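Hey Z.,

So I finally got round to the KG4 thing we talked about over coffee. Here's the setup:
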Amino acid sequence: MILSIESSCDDSSIAITNIKDNKLIFHKKISQEKQHACYGGVVPELASRLHAIDLPNILEETKPYLDKLKAVAVTNQPGLGVTLLEGIAMAKTIAVTKEIPLIAVHHLKGHIYSLFIEKEEILPLLVLLISGGHTQIIRVESLEKMTILATSMDDSVGESFDKTAKMMGLGYPGGPIIEKLALKGDENRFVLPVPLRNSPLIAFSLSGLKNAVRLAIESVGGAEKMSQQNQCDISASFQKAVKLHLIQKSKKVFKEEMIKDFAIVGGASANLYIREAYEKLCSEFGKTLHTVPLEYCSDNAAMIGRYAVEAYKKKLFIDPYTIDIVVNKKRQQGVEL
Ligand code: KG4
Ligand code: ZN
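And the result:
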């Protein structure tokens, strides 16, 4: 069995995965959403302190399995430095005291492997990753060979949902709130610009749309005076613009990439309106769409464990005395896989 730890942002999570058949033996996640909600986003120092309390409590519950561990895995990039360190400290300690190998997991590769929790890998694969930190289309050929085909120039999909909710004073995380309001809204009421619509670039950008949302909010008298119908209409119009942007750029990739299997992963892939649009796109292009069970879309240790099973088979281990967080200065474009 492999014990895996995830603490890259505001979820403390530990999983135990069987190496032989990928079966998830244990999985627990404590989300800190409530503690960060009043700040409209994640406060790194607070997140780190909460991990220091929650991770040991979860670890306590894994006691029955600790003697069966063959390896320990931990997310070491990308993420918040101070929160990654909490998971790394725990993983290092387990690896050294139990004298078992340590596996460092790239969080985005973990999201990709969330597709294969309790399943075999489907490769090669095209993946749209939409999370709180990233928007990317990735060609996945193997564990080691992943190529970024399109990436974000500024705000990610999840971030743009969070900021839209924040601008309307609706709390955090914004994704589920906006998706719910949009169900009761008129998506054609506000004509918001579809980002990079006339650009040949195969890339994502959402900061311009964020400004258009701000102007739309001001046009109805600002967040304080907003009626619920206005909130619903802005949410629906915003979500439609994000969808059109994602679909337009994905189409360009589909025209160049012949791989038949396509998947959407990451926290924002829980959005059913976006999923529906991809179902249509995939049937138009003769591709098979793969999605992640809703409970594993957002950050969790089960996906880190699933990746680690494959890394274990290939003996991709790291020295517990030298493992460290990997901080990337160019947050969006520079995330190498
Ligand atoms: O993958 P994730 O848990 O964390 C990162 O790796 O960043 O993604 C979190 C993001 C948040 O920005 C959240 O608002 C967004 O995923 N999200 C959604 C939905 N559920 C979560 N965005 C749009 N629609 C949703 N239903
Ligand atoms: Zn994530």
